[in-house]
Design goal:
The complex is a heterodimer.
Chain A (H helix, E strand, L loop, with lengths): L1 H7 L19 H39 L2 H4 L3 E2 L5 E2 L4 H30 L2 H16 L2 H26 L22 H24 L4 H9 L4 H30 L2 H6 L18 H8 L9 H32 L7
Antiparallel strand pairs in A: 1-2
Helix pairs in contact in A: 2-12, 4-7, 4-9, 5-7, 6-7, 7-9, 8-9, 9-12, 11-12
Chain B lengths: L1 H9 L17 H25 L5 H23 L2 H39 L24 H32 L4 H12 L3 H15 L6 H25 L3 H9 L4 H12 L1 H16 L3 H6 L18 H9 L4 H28 L9 H32 L1
Chain lengths: ~350, ~400
């Protein structure tokens, strides 16, 4: 009977199936609610736009005065023979950030791997708390600690590096000396302290990605006879590569913008050099913090110059951070937090 | 029960209960190799670093000790195990030291600040005095942090009041509305979490102080704090909202609830403890911010309880000014301020851990006890009603 029916009544050739569009009709209350949420979400863009707009407006005077020379001038004189630029403070700041990353990224990855792969469950929770606490320790405390605890203790190590590895260009030293003052307030010490502030960022972001590595593949690796390190190397690390790169970028953004700890530690220098152990360094953020109190009035060139430096810093970190956030978002999508 | 005994009688005797095979137990070889390598490295390091080669410095000593330790450990391990396990052991040890190092640094920083700060804090007047009467030659007993404490608390509360509503709404947008359009918002919020903190101060200076004419005050500082806290609140709350089970939302929709009702009555109450944690963590981060406050709060040596008028000092700002002062006693005062700040952060952090930590919907012990009590009361009530109605029926009959 059903077969007969089939043969006799052939359905007319239908146009291709198109999925029915599902349209949810929201009530008025819901529409208002969703509108409010959407507006609040997009307000982040408004704030970023406002920051850009006001920094540009306030920096215009300095840019107009210095023009392209703002990028090529090393000195920072904003009183009468005005002559200022970021040719020294920007590369010094980048050096500090790079040293911080060279220390923080391997350490952060090691800690993240220990927490996600090696630590027993009970220890895992307390270690995560320790890393969170490390992120919450104020940067002024890092500054105090770096200035008065770390610096006297690290100078011996510095002078050892300077004397024995001085043939490596970055460890090169102007004169062969063991006077402590020649090593104090260097790019290297600032970099070490900033690295401690970057470690929590790198650790917590990489840990989240590592812990999402698929269980099936881990077990597959073990079933093929992998040791734990073999499993980590072939499953967890390749899986987390994008997350680690994104975490590194966000860490770089944080390191570039670190203000107070760097300000407390460095002694300002105005001729850029790659000798990281030598006393004297600089960064845009610390320049703003140090120079600001001298310019209480709104219209002064000094303040406008600081705004210009701040704008460069903001634009740079925003680009670095956005790339980092996109990379992290990619590595996260399709996993537990899919849209 | 009866069925059980029957099957056991007919089937083969039951095997002994499975004991799970314990992997990676601590072996004597493992521990001894570690200890031996550590001790050997210590000795070798001492001979080389202190006697043979002209090095100096505490930090250098421990760095070289660690390098020697890794070399020795690998060598000793290579004597007894195959190549694969040597590599495995090496990585375990290296990663474990990473965890230990982080813990050691955190403990060191907290302890160092507390110990150095004790010299100032041991005079209880430190918490009740301001710096108004303090001169460059005043002894350590004169001058305190009372004004900075008040400023910090007012600024962080105002900043939280400004940042939390907006941050929470933005998080709700990301988690509840979502969709393709939300992706750039999430990216920007991620990017903003690592934004230089001094930029927030610079922005408030350019926008509110110079353009709108708001005077430098505690309120301007709390605006700057709000901008640095906003992305932190949003990120953390979104992570919490995301783990609210979708089935709860669907149940509410199935009962005819609209979306805003669902969010208000189901999602937010379920995520309450996690959201509280997010807020408190953001407060802990915000309370220590110096750079945003530096540009817009001004610096007052005396007490100013009004955040909307006049310059106001917060704890981080107090520490910054004291530590950059050339007077030796001021460094001690800076550590005293650090003592107070670290304590505040630790307290906030502990509160955050206490209220949060569990998954959404998971109850704390006290909540569970309260629910149990309510349940019991309800059962007793129901039982009484039953007996009452029974008695009434009996009386009627």
């Amino acid at each position: 009977m059903p077969a007969e029916a089939n043969t006799r009544i052939m359905p007319p050739a239908l146009p291709e199936d198109t999925p029915r569009a599902i349209v949810a009709h929201h009530s008025t209350g819901d529409r208002i609610f969703r509108g409010t949420l959407r507006a609040s979400g997009w307000s982040v863009f408004v704030i970023t736009g406002l920051i850009l707009a006001f920094l540009i407006a306030r920096a215009a005077k300095a840019f107009r005065f210095m023009g392209v020379r703002f990028l090529t001038t090393s000195s920072w004189v904003t009183l009468s023979p005005q002559h200022f630029g970021i040719a020294a403070i920007l590369p010094f700041g980048i050096m500090i950030a790079l040293i911080a990353l060279i220390i923080a990224v391997p350490t952060g990855i090691a800690i993240a791997l220990y927490i996600s792969e090696y630590a027993p469950p009970r220890l895992k929770r307390s270690l995560i708390a320790v890393i969170d606490l490390m992120a919450a320790i104020p940067s002024i405390i890092f500054g105090l600690w770096g200035l008065l605890f770390l610096e006297p203790r690290i100078i011996g190590f510095d002078s050892w590096l300077g004397r024995h590895l001085g043939w490596i260009p970055v460890f090169n030293f102007r004169q062969n000396t063991s006077v402590a003052a020649d090593y104090a307030g260097s790019t290297f010490i600032a970099g070490v302290v900033v690295s401690l502030m970057v470690i929590p960022i790198v650790t917590s972001l990489s840990r989240q990605v590592f812990s999402q590595a698929p269980q099936g593949e881990r077990e597959g690796a073990y079933a093929l006879g992998a040791t734990r390190w073999g499993m980590v190397r072939t499953v967890v690390l390749p899986f987390g590569r994008a997350g680690v790169i994104g975490a590194t970028m966000l860490g770089l953004g944080r390191a570039l913008g670190e203000t107070i700890a760097v300000t407390l530690i460095i002694t300002p220098a105005w001729d850029f050099n790659f000798r990281v152990l030598q006393a004297g360094s600089n960064s845009i953020a610390s320049r703003i913090a140090v120079d600001f109190p001298s310019f209480p009035q709104g219209g002064s060139m000094g303040l406008s110059a600081l705004m210009a430096a701040g704008l460069v810093l903001f634009a740079m970190t925003l680009i670095v951070n956005t790339i980092g956030a996109i990379v992290i978002g990619r590595s996260r999508s399709g996993l537990a937090t899919a849209d | 029960m009866a069925a059980d005994t029957e099957t056991t009688q007919t089937a083969a005797p039951e095997p002994a209960a499975d004991t799970p095979l314990r992997l990676r137990t601590v072996t004597a070889e493992g521990v001894l190799t570690l200890a031996g390598a550590a001790a050997g490295a210590l000795g070798l390091d001492w001979v080389l670093y202190e006697r043979v080669l002209p090095f100096s410095g505490v930090l250098g000593f421990w760095v070289s000790w660690y390098a020697l330790f890794l070399v020795l450990y690998t060598a000793v391990a290579a004597l007894q195990w195959d190549k694969l396990s040597v590599r495995d052991k090496f990585c375990s040890v290296a990663f474990t030291t990473g965890g230990l190092l982080a813990t050691a640094i955190v403990i060191d920083q907290v302890a160092y600040t507390l110990v150095r700060g004790w010299a100032a804090v041991k005079f209880p007047r430190f918490f009740t005095q301001t710096m108004a009467d303090e001169g460059p030659l005043s002894p350590i007993q004169v001058g305190g942090v009372a004004h900075a404490l008040v400023g910090t608390l007012e600024q962080i509360l105002l900043g939280t009041a400004l940042a939390v509503p907006l941050g929470l709404l933005a998080a709700l947008y990301l988690a509840e509305v979502g969709g393709r359009a939300a992706r750039p918002v999430r990216t920007l919020v991620d990017a903003m979490t690592a934004l230089p903190d001094i930029i927030a101060g610079l922005f408030i200076l350019a926008f509110c102080v110079l353009t709108l004419g708001l005077p430098k005050s505690g309120f301007a500082a709390s605006l700057a704090l709000a901008i640095t806290m906003l992305p932190i609140v949003t990120r953390a709350s979104e992570a919490v909202l995301r783990i609210v089970p979708g089935t709860l939302r669907e149940a509410s929709y199935a009962l005819g609830g609209s979306q805003w009702r669902t969010v208000l009555n189901v999602v937010l109450p379920t995520a309450r403890s996690g959201l509280a944690t997010a807020v408190v963590l953001a407060m802990a981060r915000g309370i220590g911010e110096t750079a945003p406050v530096l540009l817009v709060a001004g610096y007052a040596r005396g007490m100013n309880t009004n955040p909307f008028h006049g310059w106001q000092t917060s704890l981080p700002l107090y520490i910054y000014y004291e530590v950059t002062s050339p007077v030796p006693d001021d460094k001690i005062r800076a550590f005293g301020g650090g003592f107070a700040l670290v304590l505040l952060v630790l307290v906030l952090f502990t509160i955050a851990r206490r209220i949060g930590g569990g998954a959404p919907g998971e109850l704390t012990r006290r909540q569970r006890r309260r629910l149990e009590k309510q349940d019991a009361a309800r059962q007793i009530e129901a039982g009484q009603r039953l007996t009452n109605s029974g008695a009434a029926e009996g009386a009627e009959a």
